[in-house]
Amino acid sequence: MTQQRRSAGFRLAALAIPTVAALALTGCGGSSSSASDAENQEFSLTFATSNTVESPYEALAKQYMQEFPDVKITLNPQPNDSYDQVVRTQLQAGNASDVLVTSPGSASGRSILPLVEAGFLEPLSESAAALVPEGSEALFGPDGKVYGLAPEITVVGLVNNDTASAAAGVNAFPEDFAGVLEQCGVLAADNKSMFAVAGTAAPNTGLLGMQLAATRVYSKDPDWNDKRAAGDVTFAGTEGWQQALEAVVDLKDAGCFQKGAEGAGFDVVTKALVGGDSLAAFIPGPSNKQLKTTAEDQDFEVRVLPSEGGPDEDFIYASANYAYSINAASKNKDAATTFLEWLAEPEQTKAFAEIDGALPVTGLEDFDFANSAYKNVADLVLNNRYAPLPNSEWSNASVYDELGTGVQGLLTGQQTPAQVLEAMDAAWDQ
Amino acid sequence: MTVTSQSTSREASEPASGQAPIGQKTEDSRPGRRGNGSKKPSRPQWGLEFGHWWWALPGIVLVFAVHYVATGIGGFFAFTNWSGIGSFEIVGFKNFEAIFNDPTKIRSLGNTLFFAFGSVLLGNILGLLLALGLNRVVKTRYALRTLFFMPVVLSPLATAYIWKFIFDFDGPINVLLTSVGLEHLAKPWLADPHWAVWTVLVVLTWSSTGFAMVIFMAGLTSVPNEVEEAAAIDGANLWQRFCHVTLPVLRPAVAIAMTLGIVQGLRVFDPIMALTSGGPAGATETLATEVYKQAFALGNFGGGAALALVLAVIILFFAVLQQRLTRSNPED
């Protein structure tokens, strides 16, 4: 052997020995059965966060690890703003978490149906199917399969600051839409507003538009979305939708929104509600708990936006807006499935709803409405006068974005209701 | 052309006798060739010969793989209906038809050009004034230069949020207006359909002025004092000296500042997302913000890629046009 070949051999050995050692230490050289078992006890969970309030996803995961000390859950919280994009990119790249938080339907980047179509989600067991709210089966997966475990029921109506209402002299919440408009004028004269709206946040202005459509469209025609999907109706051609967006203009003209609403963000809504400058906001029911955390001395109640016909015609949205799903490419499906089975137990669904300030997905008939923030909507929920959020059944995310952007355009006077509805139809058909 | 640049060109074209200009090889010095008086054949140095471009190959491959291949793949998706996940179909020019048939996209294109040219025009005028003012004489010029250049160094996203606070309905501007009895002028500046574009333009101009100032200050160092003094002695006033002495020397600096400013202005994204997210109701939407929304927020990756391709072509067009219009040597 020449000197050159010997030195080359030394160099090779110098590289190979630490490499082999590293591979052996990290387990890449092969796995024993015990290593495999340990691996199966570990999985990761990705969920969205948008504030510093305790996340129910995190709380339940920690509780699971406490009950089962051998299990390790790696938590991957993501900012809500970029959650859809992050999850989609990770799923596409094959490095997404084992368990993901998704949304039923097809309206957003995290929605179950397009993710199932792309082959990214694993079908779940009977325990998940048992938790699917009645009438929402199609939103949880095609062909009768279920790809998401619903952890709670989210009521979407108004969150009202009852303490601020009393201080402003509003002792009785208006019973119909005309009463709302009248009350708006009284409050505006006192430099307050009935509603706080985040005009720059399409999710908030979108909720405003959809809530006005609850009694004008969906309570009268529960199958409207199916008809739109079949091409039998259009937004622009539906009288109820025209009335809903005209009502936005009526609310604006009556002084129902805070000054500068068209340029406000969610921070303004929170500040106005907590400060009592505005009495209510178009936000999901669980926000009552987050607001209560900020202002413990005030009472925040979930209410329905009064209909034109009074209490008998009131109608609200309530549905499972989020779900746990399992990544089809996960290598820890067994551990993830066991976790979801545990989550589906009544104790856990109850705990989840309590932490989040929502309604439990099971046992609603036993829920103590009277001592909760939902006492004013109990009749609607218990008498089945509710429907899932309509945008969860819309064809793509652009439709809801057009509604949210369009409502801002109505607030600034840039657009007319007809133009907004035409844009929504165009987005649906794209 | 100025005296200084002419003499520099002459020196470059007429090297001292017996010396080859730097960088130019004489016949004798070329590897692999014999000199006229040499009888011993020299060994061809093929490794060195090839090394001149082979050595750059890893870098070239990296740039192509990371930049051009990725861009090319993105360009390919412009001709598909890909949502960002799952399978896709090739749809030809359908995405481009949708762009040019959609008035909101045309408005985004108009806004893109408005912000790019508006911020370049205002930024260059203000940058030139600042450069002239801070070039000499002023004792605090170094501190002032730093202050005016600071917006270029600071994070555009962070400063945009500060501007957003300033222009908020409850922000300092409206508070000031209200305090002096002008509350009727208070408005949501960033959500007012008429004022939003101008408000955004103010922020973009503020952030680009420092960059233009630095380029013009570098250009001003080339203005010979003696020529300015000679012009002054000959009776030229301040404006004449600026037009006939300073500005001709600054011509390359103007070209650079405008080219870079337009390219930067066309692709501006983060300040607009932070200030208005393209609102109110699309009034400040640009192609860059539309690309993001379509490709990533609304699950229309094919449409977003098509918009990105349109934006890239526009940037390329203006970059080439600007270079051709402003080059100092027609033979370049």
Please render the helix and strand layout as text.
The complex is a heterodimer of chains A (430) and B (332).
Chain A: H1 3-26, H2 33-40, E1 42-49, H3 56-67, E2 72-79, H4 83-93, E3 99-102, H5 112-117, E4 121-122, H6 126-129, E5 152-156, E6 158-161, H7 162-167, H8 177-189, E7 193-196, H9 202-218, H10 224-230, H11 239-253, H12 266-275, E8 278-281, H13 287-294, E9 300-303, E10 316-319, E11 323-327, H14 333-343, H15 346-356, E12 359-360, H16 378-382, E13 386-387, H17 397-412, H18 417-429
Parallel strand pairs in A: 1-2, 1-3, 7-8, 10-13
Antiparallel strand pairs in A: 3-11, 4-11, 5-10, 5-12, 6-8, 6-9
Chain B: H1 3-13, H2 46-54, H3 57-77, H4 94-101, H5 103-133, H6 141-153, H7 156-167, H8 172-179, H9 196-220, H10 225-233, H11 238-266, H12 270-275, H13 287-297, H14 301-326
Summarize the structure.
Chain A has 430 residues and is an alpha/beta fold.
Can you tag this structure with a few keywords?
heterodimer; A: alpha/beta; D-Maltodextrin-Binding Protein, domain 2; 5-stranded mixed beta sheet; 4-stranded mixed beta sheet; disordered N terminus; B: 332 residues
Helical percentage of chain A:
40-55%
**CATH H level, superfamily name of the largest domain in chain A:** Periplasmic binding protein-like II
Domain module count of chain A:
2
- As a whole number of angstroms, the C-alpha radius of gyration of chain B is 27 Å
CATH homologous superfamily of the domain at 112-286 and 314-326 in chain B, by name?
MetI-like
> How far apart are the first and last residues' alpha carbons of chain A, in Å?
72 Å
Q: Total strand count of chain A, please? A: 13
Mean pLDDT of chain B: 82
User: What percentage of the residues of chain A does DSSP assign to strands (E)?
Assistant: 5-15%
List the total number of helices of chain A: 18
Compute the separation of the termini of chain B in Å. 15 Å
Radius of gyration of chain A: 25 Å
> What do we call the CATH topology of the largest domain in chain A?
D-Maltodextrin-Binding Protein, domain 2
What series of H and E elements makes up the topology of chain B? HHHHHHHHHHHHHH
